[in-house]
Amino acid sequence: MVTKIWDLRQYDEQIEENKDMNEIKTIFENNGLIAIPTETVYGLGADARNEHAVKRIYKAKGRPSDNPLIVHIYKKEQIYAFTTNLTKEIETLMDSFWPGPISFIIPLKQGYLCKSVSGGLDSIAVRMPSHFIGRQILKYVDMPIAAPSANMSGRPSPTTFEHVYHDLNGRIEGIVNGDQSEEGLESTVLDCTQFPFRIARPGSITKSMIEEVIPGSVTTDGTLNHQKPIAPGMKYKHYAPDTPVQILSSFNTYPSSKSNWGQTAFIVPRNKEFLVPEEAMFIALCEDENDIKRANHNLYQILHQLDQNEKINHAYIYGFDLKDDTTAIMNRMMKAANQAIVRGEDL
Ligand code: TXA
Ligand code: MG
Q1: Residue 330: which residues within 8 A CB-CB, separation 6 or more?
Q2: What domains can be seen in the chain, in order of their start residue?
Q3: Fewer CB within 10 Å, N side or C side of the chain?
Q4: Distance, CA 89 to ligand 1 centroid (Å)?
Q5: What confidence tens digit (pLDDT) does each residue in 273-305 have?
Q6: Around ion ligand 2, which residues have CB less than 5 A away?
Q7: Bridge partners of 315?
């Protein structure tokens, strides 16, 4: 299959009806798959009402069919077609954080969306992205778009057009270029099928940000360390680059061992560069240990870069202290590292 590429970055205001938009809409109306930019990561979109189209998403990604997808919308009214009455609390959070990097799992009303999109569950995850181009597409096509991250299953999520192209060129109808995703980590997934709500996947909208809007609305009970994964996706190996990665905790001293560092990368904040052995490769994760937004933005781009660099056969990545705003990045790093942690003083 020839994968068509659109570059919509030239538009800075409303993207009016034009040839590209018409083409994109027609492809979605005809079972097609198109990767679109969002502020978190690129998504692989299809018409969420169309069983055939949604099944093709699972196939193109090599994704297990019991792992449900997130439905993307342009305006809130769209969700009333496929959900039962929402509580005041859910609506309040949607109004506070949308458009933006948070998905809500809400009760599913059968009959409007196709069956595969929810992987057979009676709930559905929904999100309204803020990315200018992604939003304009959702508005123009005027349909709910099911979109998991636009990577092959098991690979790091794509934050650039090139990442999508690498994984999915030839497997899908098209890719829309929209520059590097600003956030860089997948959205927070908030399970709202019970109260207090539970964070099924941490993201840049944190527990304390949610609780600032509704105090006491998020339980920590059974969240991230829970045996049974809350989001079905959490049980699958995820986000892992091919290059072995280990998390480096308390990196405060210069390594004492005489290891051969020639093929090792240190992915650490710039203010720790002076601790990186000269023969090793330094990759800047962010400016300093408080620069979490930048670290989120860069992480997947760096993981992709590791696999492209033949000189690197091992990497250490800086482990942040676990806090409200580092929960998401540490969750992704732990998966990329297969839970492997090394202490700085043991190097
Ligand atoms: O930022 C994002 O969320 C990106 C962009 C494209 O929007 N999308 C994304 O989708 O990360 P995906 O499919 O890679 O991750 C969706 C996660 C999975 O872990 C899935 O198991 C969980 O959300 N999920 C979806 N629907 C669910 C449901 N009804 N109940 C529990 N978990 C659900
Ligand atoms: Mg994904």
Answers
A1: 319, 320, 322
A2: 4-213 (3.90.870.10), 245-346 (3.40.50.11030)
A3: N
A4: 21
A5: 999 999 999 999 999 999 999 999 999 999 999
A6: 149
A7: 245, 265
Nearest atom of ligand 1 to the alpha carbon of 147: 6
Structure confidence at residue 237 as a pLDDT band (50, 70, 90): low
| CA-70 nearest atom, ligand 1 | 25
Name all residues whose Cβ lies below 6 A of ligand 1.
Answer: 38, 40-41, 43, 67-70, 103, 105, 118, 121, 123-125, 127, 147-149, 186-187, 189, 200-201, 231-234
Cα of 151 from ligand 2 centre, angstroms: 7
Q: At CA 150, angle to CA 148 and CA 154, rounded to 5?
A: 85
Residue 257 has pLDDT above 90, yes or no: no
Tokens of 247: 């998390």
**Tokens encoding 219:** 């339980």
SS3 assignment, position 223: coil
- Residue with the two structure tokens 């009455």: 85
* Residue 187 is assigned to a ligand binding site: yes
Residue 136 CA, chain-centre distance (Å), reads 20
Question: Strands of 264-268's sheet, edge to edge?
Answer: 281-284, 264-268, 314-318, 245-249, 341-343
Q: What is the C-alpha separation between 1 and 169, in angstroms, rounded? A: 8
Please give the average per-residue pLDDT across 24-40, as a whole number: 98
* Number of Cβ within a 10 Å radius of residue 127: 26
Distance of CA 236 to the CA centre of its chain: 15
Rounded to the nearest whole angstrom, what is the distance from the C-alpha of residue 105 to the centroid of ligand 1? 9
Entry pTM: 0.95
Alpha helix (H) ranges present in 64-192? 88-97, 132-141, 161-168
Q: How confident is the model over 180-207, as pLDDT tens digits?
A: 999 999 999 999 999 999 999 999 999 9
